[in-house]
Each structure stands twice: as structure tokens, then as C-alpha cells.
């Protein structure tokens, strides 16, 4: 299943409740899930990391659906066809 299909299925199943909840509520839930992901990463608990990544992805797709944003093509454009690494503020790899 591709991301577009997954997003469509989730929209069909959850859009009504997401629309009633509103964007600020969904954003608050996303922040909560990101906090839970951060804690799981801090602890290094793979099962919990997996669970929280799924929750974060679900919330991202729910917010995208609420605003009628299709993510798959943009993700491909930006990160597969394009390469934004030159704009990332990463420390240089140093050999010591």
C-alpha cells in the first residue's frame, strides 16, 4: 500500500471526527505523541519507539487530511527527486 492510499483510507475512516476536533486539537495531540516518542527514544525502547512513530504518523496524516494536503507526491519531490541536505545545519564529520 502506498502513502496516498493509506492517507485516503484514514481520511475516510477518521475525517469526520478530526473535523469536529479541529486543527488545534489535532496539533496538540501530535505534540503529545512527539513527547511520548521523545521519551521512548530517550529510553531506547524499540517497541515503544515503533508504537509512538505510528501514532505520530497517524496524527500527521490526520492533519494533512484536515487541510486536504496530499503528502506522497510532495515527499517524493522534496526528498527523493530533490536533496535538501545542503540546507540542513549539520555538524561536519570530523576524524580525530
Q: What features would you highlight for this structure?
A:
96 residues, mainly alpha
Please name the CATH architecture.
Answer: Orthogonal Bundle
CATH topology: Helix Hairpins
Using only C-alpha atoms, the radius of gyration works out to 16 Å
SS class: mainly alpha
The count of strands amounts to 0
Major sheet size, sense and barrel closure:
none
How would you name the CATH homologous superfamily? MazG-like
Estimate what percentage of residues fall within beta strands.
under 5%
SSE pattern? HHHH
How far apart, in Å, are the first and last alpha carbons? Answer: 45 Å
Q: Please count the helical segments.
A: 4
Residue-averaged pLDDT: 93
- Percent of residues in helices: over 70%
Mind telling me the CATH class?
Answer: Mainly Alpha
Q: Which stretches are poorly predicted, pLDDT < 50 over at least 5 residues?
A: none
Give the secondary structure arrangement, pairings included.
Blueprint: H1 3-21, H2 23-43, H3 46-66, H4 71-81
Helix pairs in contact: 1-3, 2-3
Description of the structure:
The chain has helices spanning 3-21, 23-43, 46-66, 71-81. It is mainly α and 96 residues long. The mean pLDDT is 93.
Brief account:
The protein is mainly alpha-helical. The chain has four helices and no strands. Helix 1 (about 5-20) crosses helix 3 (about 45-65) and helix 2 runs antiparallel to helix 3 (about 45-65).
